[in-house]
Design a protein that fits this description.
This protein starts with a helix and ends in an 8-residue tail after the last helix. The chain is globular and about 55 Å long. By secondary structure, it is mostly helical. The chain has one domain. β1 and β2 form a beta hairpin. Helix content is 72%, strand content 2%. The chain has a two-stranded antiparallel sheet with strand order 1-2.
Amino acid sequence: MSLWNILLDTLTQGSIYFLIAVGLTMVYGILKILHIAHAAVYTIGAGVGLAVFKLTGSFWLALIAAMLVSGLVGVIIYRGVYFYMLDQPRIVPLITSVGLFLLIEDLLQKPYLMGPYQHAFPAQEVFPSITLPWGTIPNAQVMILTLTGVALVALYLIFTRTRLGLAWQAAAQDREMAGSVGINLNRAIALNFLLGSALAGAAGVLVGVFYNSVYATMGDVPSYKAFVVIVLGGMGSVTGTLAASFLLAFAETVLLASVGYVLPRDAIAFLVLIFVLMFRPQGLLGR
């Protein structure tokens, strides 16, 4: 594998990991809940995007619909489940989240929804490929890198330039104190779920297009890859999640390029997690 291919694969996989994991990080930052059902939201986004694409033939309508539906599902999960567990020990919402993930995944495998089969998502010509002096960026990867860049800019502006972003930061530091100074916590948390889940839905569509495959259990691997990313980046740190996403993607790509398929790519993520927990359990940017 050439240096250019290593760089391109790292950027592509890192972008996917970030879009999936950032919502999980945002939820943990405020509620200190490991929102495992976030992976089911990612799958729902892919399924909705595929259904809309089949109806309209428009990638952009599919992406928007996936983000809207996924965001709404995220809010429903918060208001219908986690809202009643905020004062419970953290193990309670964690177990509930795992059960919710398994329930949604099982429902998605029903014949009247996604079924047990893989479905093609042939929206391949959304962006043109880019040819540079040192290599070509295929159109699917241009799509992922461009939309991830847009998401990064949007997140930066929301976190640093809006009252909502300040409310999220205050709630992450001390939720009770934030509520006592007049911040509407329910509204802030619901919008946190809305945005994080919408990004997960967008990731589902992008992955479906990139691999030309959507299926009901596609959230299985992201459910633990996202966990590796947020632990590596420092629990609750969006900046750490960004750094960890690309570091994990780089480690996977380099190891595969140097030693071949001695280990599956997904197993490498757990090796990285083990080393982090051994030598820096607070993560890259954790305290």
